[in-house]
Amino acid sequence: MKVNHLLEVNSVLSMFIAEIRDSKIQKDSMRFRRNLERIGEIIAYELSKDLSFNPTRVTTPLGVKTMQTINEKLVVASILRAGLPLHQGLLNYLDRAENAFISAYRKHQADSDDFDIVIDYFASPSITGKTLLLADPMLATGKSLVGVYEGIKKFGSPKTIHLISVIASRDGIDYITKYFPENTTLWVAAIDDELNKMGYIIPGLGDAGDLAFGNKV
Predict the structure, then answer these.
(1) Distances (CA, A) of 51 to 24, 72, 160, 161, 180
(2) Which pLDDT tens digit goes with each residue over 29-82?
(3) Number of Cβ within a 10 Å radius of residue 129
(4) pLDDT tens digit string along 146-198?
(5) How far is CA 193 from CA 28, 174, 203, in A?
């Protein structure tokens, strides 16, 4: 699996990551959602450089020009609920993509930090022969992405897979590498070194879903 760590090169992306990490700024849920969306737009732009293009003749009011346009069938799949702002950012730039949504959450065992990933809901078109963009803002243990990948296989076999995360742990990256095929590329803005005993990224940013949409009951 190829890993593209976008913050290895300084860009405006670093400003958006700094704001979603900042415990004061992230209290503004609207700004938090917008920053996730902007991060999605930047990742979509970088990812688009790896897509295939075909020459297309475009007629302007004054003539004809041959331009390069994307020649791949894309499916953007996001994990609810935290993935929604990131999904929108990807879709802002890759607006002809089809869409898939998956419900996945942690179910902790009684009096234990151990947890299982529960997947309740899938809504997806066929992904056979298409380019799958699977988005989850926080790649912590990697169990959610692996569980979703196993579940989405019932919709077909994609041509290539792009995994998209905002912040990942090194342990999570090592974990998913064991389960995803070689034709997989991970696009991640920031990589942190640690997980705590509950499987949350340190320093990370907290719970992305709660910060974007409010605390769960």
Answers:
(1) 38, 7, 10, 11, 19
(2) 999 999 999 999 999 999 999 999 999 999 999 999 999 999 999 999 998 888
(3) 11
(4) 989 988 999 999 999 999 999 999 999 999 999 999 999 999 999 999 999 88
(5) 27, 12, 8
What are the residue boundaries of the structural domains of the chain, listed by start? 2-52+69-206
Question: CB of 90 within 8 A of CB of 44?
Answer: yes
Radius of gyration of the chain (CA): 18
CATH number, domain 2-52+69-206: 3.40.50.2020
> pTM of the predicted model, to two decimals?
0.92
- Report pLDDT digits (tens) over 68-90: 999 999 999 998 888 999 999 99
Residues 185 and 50: their CA atoms lie apart, in Å, by: 10
